[in-house]
Every structure is written in C-alpha cells, then in structure tokens.
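In this section we walk through a basic example: taking a raw amino acid sequence and producing a predicted 3D structure, encoded as discrete structure tokens. The instruction is simple. Fold the sequence below.
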Amino acid sequence: MTYESAIQYFVTDHPSDSITKKGAIIRQIHPQGHHLVQVFLNAQNQLILRPDGKLYGRQLVARELDKELSDTFGDQDLIIVE
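The resulting token sequence is shown next.
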C-alpha cells in the first residue's frame, strides 16, 4: 500500500457528517504482510460508528508498504491524520 492511497481513502470515503475530524491507521504484523485498519475519529478521538453500530472504516492486508508510508509509521503502529 502506498501513503498516497491510504490518505486518499480518508479524502474520498469519509462519512458525510460534520463530526468526523481525523483518521487513524493502525498497523499489525500479518503472515502475508501488514494488517491495516483505517478508521475515522471525532474531535475527541472517539471512533465514528455507522448507524448499524459498526466502525466506519476499512481493514485490509497489504503485502508491503511503500517507503513514505513505512517512514511515516516509523517504529510506531499508529498514524493519526488530521
């Protein structure tokens, strides 16, 4: 996955409400690469939920991360996008 595609998701797929203020990307090691979870947060860093109670976001397994995304994570497993 590229940094650009991760950020683009937040731009194009954000909830259509006024409470969404941030995004978060969480990384975990996966046998096939990296398990990534992208979610949306409000101003108090609380998760945004869909009307059915499920998280608003996505999760996927990326075989590899591009240099920019990898560098942004550094030695952390969380990126906050504002």
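Looking at the output, two observations stand out. The helical segments are 3-12, 67-73. The chain has a mean pLDDT of 95. In the next section we compare this with other chains.
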